[in-house]
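Data card: per-record layout.
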Amino acid sequence: QVQLAESGGGLVQVGGSLRLSCAASGRIFDINTMGWYRQAPGKQRELVASITSDGATNYADFVKGRFTISGDNAKNTAYLQMNAAKPEDTAVYYCNVRYRPGIARVAPFTTEPLELWGQGTLVTVSS
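The structure for this 127-residue chain is written out next.
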């Protein structure tokens, strides 16, 4: 079974910084993509940033230049560095991973990747 452990959420002042972490563990053969999404009250969940195992990144326009996503393949971990926080960044942030379960460096259990969501971590930006 694969699990995601999110950490780093909390309260930050406008203009401040926060770093979120998401670690995947369990029977993972490989990870295709890890990403962060967010959902504010009354709004739909939206992509914030994602990173592939090759290091290719994708950002939502509203965080470009402020947030940075990075990954550590050896640790199956992704990080989201949030700088220049704005009140509109207040939301529950969810980690998402697309992976193939299996025995690492041996064989996958599936051909197609599966998707897993974290439980979410609340980020509140106060003015």
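Known properties of this structure: The mean pLDDT is 96. The longest strand covers residues 91-103.

See the next section for split statistics.
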